[in-house]
């Protein structure tokens, strides 16, 4: 028992120290790009390793970007040397085209990256899921998200932080009409802090990114799930 407590204490010290290394997947996406910007200016991180299929326009003394094929973990395993793993990957049913293709990205790809990070000894995992994620859901999108969450929980990370935002707001090339309408409703719904209305309110992608980076500094062992109102509260705590 004493050894276990000592091990947990030492893990906490390792996680809270500065000069950490963040490993980020999905930096070219909506949340991922925001997350990259927040990580690069955060004092806790001395290096940010970005791994993805596409080149990045960003440039920063802390940033190292690797452009690799993500289809096989062996292609990026050796690059995952760090403390906190941030995964901001995902697609839509429309883009994927089939259920199988959607599952390959939103479950298999994310899970393989998360599993590889755990095998590489990374301490914390932070990733984006969805409001309503449930592996028993009759809605396929939510069922896949729920299965991913359930499987990731079994990995031996010191801490796992799962973001469950509603509709995302932000500048993207394929801006969807529903998101434009949602943006007009977001601020009003977020006034109902702590209620179900606040949890279903559309949320700015940058707030999700801030919440991810902030939760990585919280020293909370185990698995933690953050809904809309909790994401907004964490984002407001971000002060870098």
UniProtKB/TrEMBL annotation:
For this UniProt entry, which residues form the secretion signal? none
Q: Which organism is it from?
A: Candidatus Opimibacter skivensis
Q: Name one Pfam family in it.
A: NAD_binding_10
Q: Where is the NAD(P)-binding domain?
A: 26-168
Sorted alphabetically, which InterPro entries does this protein's record hold?
Answer: NAD(P)-bd_dom (IPR016040), NAD(P)-bd_dom_sf (IPR036291)
Source organism's superkingdom?
Answer: Bacteria
Q: What is this protein called?
A: NAD(P)H-binding protein
Q: Where are the transmembrane segments?
A: none
């Amino acid at each position: 028992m004493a050894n276990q407590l000592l091990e947990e204490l030492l893990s906490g010290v390792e996680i809270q120290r500065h000069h950490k290394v963040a490993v980020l997947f999905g930096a070219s996406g909506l949340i991922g790009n925001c997350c990259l910007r927040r990580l690069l200016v955060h004092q806790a991180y001395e290096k940010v390793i970005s791994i993805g299929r596409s080149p990045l326009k960003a440039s920063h003394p802390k940033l190292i970007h690797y452009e690799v094929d993500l289809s096989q973990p062996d292609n990026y395993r050796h690059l995952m040397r760090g403390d906190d793993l941030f995964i901001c990957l995902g697609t839509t049913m429309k883009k994927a085209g089939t259920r199988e293709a959607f599952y390959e990205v939103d479950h298999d790809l994310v899970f393989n990256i998360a599993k590889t990070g755990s095998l590489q000894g990374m301490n914390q995992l932070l990733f984006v899921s969805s409001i309503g994620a449930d592996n028993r859901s009759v809605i396929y999108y939510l069922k896949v998200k729920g299965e991913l969450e359930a499987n990731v929980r079994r990995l031996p990370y010191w801490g796992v932080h799962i973001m469950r935002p509603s509709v995302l707001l932000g500048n993207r090339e394929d801006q969807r009409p529903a998101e434009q309408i949602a943006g007009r409703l977001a601020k009003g719904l977020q006034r109902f802090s702590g209620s179900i209305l606040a949890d279903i309110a559309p949320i700015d992608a940058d707030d999700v990114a801030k919440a991810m980076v902030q939760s990585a500094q919280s020293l909370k062992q185990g698995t933690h799930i953050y809904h809309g109102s909790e994401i907004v509260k964490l984002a407001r705590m971000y002060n870098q």
